[in-house]
């Protein structure tokens, strides 16, 4: 199939005009969140293929494919109509959000609306119509600072959100925050949007560049939004790893356990705190060397924005 024009849609509608989805400044938390999509645009453009938000195109006849970042809830009938009236257009779903944020991403009836679906969730992958990808990141050399240069023990950068779901980790973030605020406020800082600075005495405000903040701390809490979901590894841990800081993370089989501290190995936060506080310089530097080796390995390349873009392009053109 010859593709010349692609329209891209995001479930979060603020990205869907003026090519905002390709503008790094459009992403409030995570300065590199848009990097994999920008990689996709750059590689497509080099192949002579235009990709834009839908408002760029005047006619459906100018569109050869539509890419949807997460299923557009309530768009099902419109999608069916487009498929009927413009059968030349191919439709591709990129499943980005997990099941607690976007449960209809995982409705197989919705998958049938698309020519192909892409997901990081191994459970759904069949290698033909549902393709595996890894969430792309802007991978870069680790920021190195000495053990002595670390200004403080730990921090967390996240938004103040909550979801009612058995797999959610929002409440686990709150447990960590409350533990430090009530017991060791001098050893912990909180950053991100939506927090009440009068209620949270460890709150330090918003951040512009997460790696600049993380690099000042020995440890950083970077729980995903959900636990026990196959293939779910996002920028949250990569930002910490590239900062030369040890992640505090919920166990996953996707990454070697030598590069993060597994919260599941501790009975409570006091036990975790003791482990963090008493870690020797030698043990800390061993952790950092493990992180450095992993970031320089071939294995990590599948998590790059460039690899993400290649996976999509290889399966649509």
Entry summary:
The protein is α/β, with parallel strands linked by helices. The protein has helices at residues 35-46, 76-85, 108-111, 170-183, 210-214, 235-241, 269-277, 281-295, 305-314; strands at residues 5-10, 50-53, 65-69, 90-94, 116-119, 130-132, 152-157, 188-191, 217-221, 246-249, 261-262.
CATH architecture of the largest domain: 3-Layer(aba) Sandwich
The mean pLDDT is 94
First-residue to last-residue Cα separation = 6 Å
Classified by CATH, the class of the largest domain is Alpha Beta
Compressed to H and E, one letter per element, the order equals EHEEHEHEEEHEHEHEEHHH
Q: Kindly give the count of domains.
A: 2
Proportion of helical residues:
25-40%
Share of β-strand residues: 15-25%
How would you describe this protein?
The longest helix has 15 residues, at 281-295. Helix 1 packs across helix 9 (305-314). Helix 2 (76-85) links the parallel strand 3 and strand 4 (90-94). 32% of the residues are buried. This protein folds into 2 domains: 5-132, 3-Layer(aba) Sandwich (Rossmann fold); 152-300, Rossmann fold (3-Layer(aba) Sandwich), CATH 3.40.50.11660. The strands form 2 sheets. It has a 6-stranded parallel sheet with strand order 2-1-3-4-5-6, covered by helices on one side. The termini are close together. The mean pLDDT is 94. The chain is 27% helix and 15% strand. With 317 residues, it is α/β, with parallel strands linked by helices. The chain has helices spanning 35-46, 76-85, 108-111, 170-183, 210-214, 235-241, 269-277, 281-295, 305-314, and strands spanning 5-10, 50-53, 65-69, 90-94, 116-119, 130-132, 152-157, 188-191, 217-221, 246-249, 261-262. It is elongated, with a radius of gyration of 21 Å.
């Amino acid at each position: 199939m010859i593709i010349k024009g692609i329209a891209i849609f995001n479930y979060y509608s603020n990205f869907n005009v003026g090519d905002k989805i390709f503008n790094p400044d459009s992403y409030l938390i995570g300065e590199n969140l848009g990097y994999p999509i920008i990689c996709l645009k750059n590689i497509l453009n080099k192949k002579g293929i235009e990709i834009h938000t839908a408002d760029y195109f005047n006619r459906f006849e100018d569109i050869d494919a539509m890419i949807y970042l997460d299923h557009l809830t309530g768009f099902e009938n419109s999608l069916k109509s487009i498929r009927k009236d413009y059968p030349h257009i191919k439709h591709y779903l990129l499943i980005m959000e997990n099941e607690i944020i976007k449960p209809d991403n995982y409705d197989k009836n919705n998958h049938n609306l698309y020519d192909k679906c892409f997901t990081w969730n191994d459970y759904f992958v069949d290698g033909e119509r549902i393709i595996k990808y890894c969430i792309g990141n802007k991978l870069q050399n680790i920021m190195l600072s000495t053990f002595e240069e670390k200004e403080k023990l730990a921090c967390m950068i996240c938004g103040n959100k909550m979801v009612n779901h058995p797999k959610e980790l929002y409440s686990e973030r709150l447990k960590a925050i409350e533990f430090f605020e009530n017991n060791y406020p001098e050893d912990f800082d909180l950053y991100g949007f939506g927090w009440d600075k009068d209620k949270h005495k460890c709150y330090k405000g918003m951040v512009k560049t997460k790696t600049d903040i993380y690099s000042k701390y020995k440890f950083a809490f970077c729980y995903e939004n959900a636990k026990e979901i196959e293939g779910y590894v996002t920028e949250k841990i990569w930002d910490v790893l590239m900062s030369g800081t040890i992640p505090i993370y919920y166990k996953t089989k996707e990454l070697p356990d030598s590069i993060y501290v597994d919260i599941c190995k501790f009975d409570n936060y006091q036990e975790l705190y003791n482990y963090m506080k008493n870690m020797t310089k030698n043990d800390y530097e061993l952790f950092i060397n493990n992180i450095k080796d992993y970031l320089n390995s071939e294995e990590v390349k599948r998590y790059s924005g460039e690899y993400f873009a290649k996976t999509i392009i290889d399966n649509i053109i």
